[in-house]
Write a structure and sequence with these properties.
The structure holds 2 protein chains of 2 kinds. Helices cover 36% and strands 7% of the residues of chain A. By secondary structure, chain A is mainly alpha-helical. Chain A has one domain. In chain A, strands 1-2 form a two-stranded antiparallel sheet. The longest helix of chain A is centred in the middle third of the chain and has 10 residues, at 48-57. Chain A is elongated and about 50 Å long. Chain B is of the alpha/beta class. Helix content of chain B is 29%, strand content 25%. An 8-stranded mixed β-sheet of chain B has the order 6-7-5-15-16-17-14-18, sandwiched between helices. In chain B, strands 9-3-2-13-20-19 form a 6-stranded mixed β-sheet, sandwiched between helices. In chain B, α1 packs parallel to α5, α1 packs parallel to α8 (336-353) and α2 packs across α8 (336-353). Chain B starts with a strand and ends in a 28-residue tail after the last helix. The chains are: A mainly alpha, B alpha/beta. The interface between A and B is medium-sized, with 29 and 32 residues. β3 of chain A pairs antiparallel with β18 (298-309) of chain B. The complex binds flavin-adenine dinucleotide (FAD).
């Protein structure tokens, strides 16, 4: 069967998302940490919106109710710096007092 | 809506969930855990999940040692891989004063069964090739220290607690707790009032706010601590490397990322958990100084969480005189993950039997009423 990759950085297939949902890991914050989606080099720029789209289209019966909560809980996770991966050397060489 | 419970646990962090699990294991039936967000949204989900037994005070060493024993079998017990890896903690020593403190406590640690030993620079270089040893005079190394993946521990406890009948309500914030005339409590969320004889307050840095509903004053303060992670690298680093003096720590996760942080003595007390570029700069300098080759590694993400700091940097555990059925565990001061297995065991003993197999009287809230308290010299950041 063809595989559908959801998160390219971490090589996560769509089936892994479904399996996590079936085990009750239903909200995005938890899915991110359970499957690894969005935690790779691009930090979710490619996969998080796809994951959200899938979550929004799925029947809530897929998930344990207590984890799913209400649809308002489907939101983007906090975007953490740095925006792009940065070398420790490059950071350490930055000037302390740049505004 | 009104519901009843035998025990209401407030907080779905590692302490609340492990306590609920231990209570269920001891036969308590109707346990409800109330968590305002998702599991792990508090400090636990943001922490380094390091587990060490190298402490200066006897009580701290014993608690940490007992926790490690539980961590060693926790994956099997919970039926969930916690990714506990015992690569040891390597405490770098950079001056004579620090040497005196660390070397001075080794006999105590060893007597209590914690196998810490002092390494000279040659042994350090063998253990962690690539460390910059300029200015390092020795290191303390305990091979049975280690770390976990914090979410795995949380989910493991949550699953095991649910299997034993515990109800875990997420996205459910406690907005009031009231003592009733009959000696029980009402714990209110927006939609439900739980009537219960026992309230277990383990709301992390918010524990003191919950306690305040009952007129209990807890002298803890929240402080932001920042942390960062690199892209995954080939496994090369076994121990967690830390400096008590410089306040940094870093280790390599099972996924290969370097996870670490550094404290900031100027950080004011607040509930803010935003990320700062100043931290990144300080951390990058400290890491490059300590392990120059890591300069080539790229940081992909930084975040922050709260330390709930008590006046002596030691946890506050137990009940409160005049409030039967009320219990709390807080003030972990940055060490609440490593202590959670033993804290859960002892708190569940206290709640169900009134006594504990390891004395924790010295950690009760009332200790702050009296004279000065003793701080452990092994506090980082
Ligand atoms: C950057 C960082 C690194 C750390 N590294 C380590 C380490 O290496 N080793 C170690 O041992 N410790 C470490 N710590 C400390 C550790 O994270 C904490 O001590 C520990 O996780 C505390 O667990 P807890 O369950 O008591 O609290 P929390 O995990 O904070 O859980 C409390 C829960 O209560 C919930 N809550 C709060 N108010 C309410 C309310 N009104 N109603 C319902 N729920 C509520 C919160 O949402 C939260 O989920 C670190 C902390 C940080 C920030």
């Amino acid at each position: 069967m063809a595989k559908t990759i959801l998160c390219h950085c971490e090589d996560i297939e769509i089936d892994e998302l479904y399996s996590a949902l079936e085990q009750g890991y239903g909200d995005l914050e938890t899915l991110k940490r359970y499957t690894g989606i969005g935690t790779g080099k691009c930090q979710g720029k490619c996969c998080i919106v796809q994951t959200l789209r899938l979550l929004a289209s799925l029947q809530t019966s897929h998930t344990r109710e207590s984890m799913m909560g209400d649809p308002d809980l489907i939101h983007l996770p906090t975007i953490r710096p740095p925006v792009l991966p940065m070398r420790i050397d490059d950071i350490a060489d930055m000037e302390e007092d740049t505004p | 809506m009104t519901k009843t419970a035998d025990i209401v646990v407030i907080g779905g962090g590692v302490n609340g969930l492990s306590c609920a699990y231990n209570l269920a294991k001891r036969g308590v039936k109707n346990i409800v855990v109330l968590e305002k967000g998702y599991i792990g949204v508090g400090s636990t989900g943001r922490c380094g999940a390091g587990v060490r037994q190298q402490w200066g005070l006897e009580e701290n060493i014993i608690l940490a040692r007992e926790s490690v024993k539980i961590f060693e079998n926790l994956s099997g017990e919970l039926g969930f891989n916690t990714f506990f890896r015992q690569g040891g903690y390597l405490i770098l020593i950079t001056d004579e004063h620090e040497h005196e403190i660390v070397a001075g406590t080794l006999p105590l640690q060893n007597r209590l069964g914690v196998p810490t030993r002092l390494l000279d620079t040659k042994e350090i270089a063998e253990l962690v090739p690539g460390l910059n040893l300029d200015g390092v005079i020795a290191a303390a190394f305990c091979p049975t220290d280690g770390f976990c993946y914090p979410y795995a521990v949380l989910w493991g406890y949550a699953e095991a607690a649910r299997r034993r009948g515990v109800t875990i309500e997420v996205n459910t914030e406690v907005i009031n707790v009231e003592a009733r005339a009959d000696g029980t409590y009402t714990v209110s969320t927006g939609t439900t009032a739980y009537q219960t004889p026992v309230v277990v307050n383990m709301a992390g840095a918010k524990t003191k706010d919950i306690a305040a509903y009952l007129g209990i004053t807890i002298p803890t303060q929240p402080f932001r601590h920042e942390i960062a992670v690199t892209e995954p690298l080939k496994p090369f680093l076994d121990p967690m490397v830390i400096s008590l003096k410089k306040g940094f720590y870093f280790s390599q996760s099972i996924r290969g990322e370097i996870v670490g942080g550094i404290g900031d003595e100027h950080e004011p007390s607040s509930y803010q958990t935003g990320s700062s570029p100043e931290f990144l700069l300080r951390y990058a300098k400290a890491i490059r100084d300590t392990f120059p080759a890591l300069g080539k590694a790229r940081i992909i993400r930084q975040w922050a969480g709260l330390y709930d700091v008590s006046p002596d940097a030691r946890p506050i555990l137990g009940g409160v005189d005049g409030k039967p059925g009320y219990f709390h565990a807080c003030g972990f001061s940055g060490h609440g993950f490593m202590l959670s297995p033993v804290v859960a065991r002892l708190m569940s003993e206290l709640i169900t039997t009134g006594c504990t197999s390891i004395p924790i009287d010295g950690l009760n809230l009332a200790r702050f009423d009296g004279g000065p308290v003793t701080k452990d010299p092994y506090v980082v950041g």
